[in-house]
Amino acid sequence: MENPQRMTDNGQEVSFIPVAAPVFSNNDGHSHPCYEIFPQGGDRCSRRVTLCLGVLNLVLLIVAGVVGVKCAKIKDSLQVSHSAATQLISELNNLRSNHSDVIKAEEEAKKDLERALQNHTLLKMQVEQHETLNDGYQRQIETLRTEKKNLQSNISAFEGSCGKCLSGWILHNSSCYFFSYVESSTVRKNWPDSRADCISHGADLVVIDNPEEQAFVSVTVTNVQGDITWQNGAWVGLTDIETEGTWVWITNVTEVEQRYWVDGEPNNHGIEGEDCGIVSYSSSNPWKTRYDGKCQIHELYWICEMPPR
């Protein structure tokens, strides 16, 4: 199709490019240019097309606005969802951390429980041992109580006679003493017979084993007899019959004290010798009271000793 050309007023030639006419479809299904449908109204067709395009633009603008609003809402919703998700993730992490702490605490609690059970078992064993010991102690206490009752009964039975001496005997420091001249100033015996008399009373000749007892015997002899010599002395349980010069008490205890002998004694005077001990009194020195005498020949007083009954 050739381009139409026109001449301008100044003689220049201008070309025109034809614009396609609007096309419409009629009822027969075929498309026709607008000027064919409206042969007398080409301008009207153009206006309608323009109007349709304007409506279409308006619809598109509305749709674009609606889409923008929706997008904004979706964006806000996504932001809210992202914030909520972040918070949920943070809480989840906290829960995981707390869960780990709970697991650790549970393990520690299990260990503590096991230790507590072990301690409980040990304490239970110790308690059982203590109970066994306590039962033993209780039985011992009961036994001791029974023995105490028996002893108290025995004490009650003997307290009427216990701690007393026979009539005519003198009590001194848990011992009973018998001075024969108190009973009779005329009866005298040799050493063996004197000892036999003491034994007949459940006693024996006196054994002087400490200074206090020596003083007691010496003072008592002095108070009763006054100033006397060895002839008025009394036999005691001291001899050197076994070994001459080694004086031994009847309890088999060797006498080592020398200060109680009168000066010059013991002298073992005479052919028969002097092998038995005598206690007398010395006015010059009350501590020097001992002589040696003839056991079978000399007849003297005697002193017996025994524990209280």
Describe this structure in words.
- The chain is α+β, with helices and mostly antiparallel strands.
- The protein has a domain at 170-306: Mannose-Binding Protein A, subunit A (Mannose-Binding Protein A, Chain A, Roll), CATH 3.10.100.
- The chain has 5 helices and 12 strands.
- It has helices at residues 34-37, 42-158, 180-183, 191-200, 211-225, and strands spanning 5-7, 13-15, 23-25, 31-33, 170-172, 175-179, 204-205, 234-239, 248-249, 276-279, 290-293, 301-306.
- Strands 5, 6, 7, 8, 9, 10, 11 and 12 form an 8-stranded mixed sheet that branches. It has a two-stranded antiparallel sheet with strand order 1-2. It has a two-stranded antiparallel sheet with strand order 3-4.
- Strand 8 and strand 9 form a beta hairpin.
- The model is unreliable at 14-22 and 34-39 (pLDDT under 50).
- Residues 96-161 form a coiled coil.
- Keywords: Coiled coil, Lectin, Membrane, Transmembrane, Transmembrane helix.
- The chain crosses the membrane at residues 49-69.
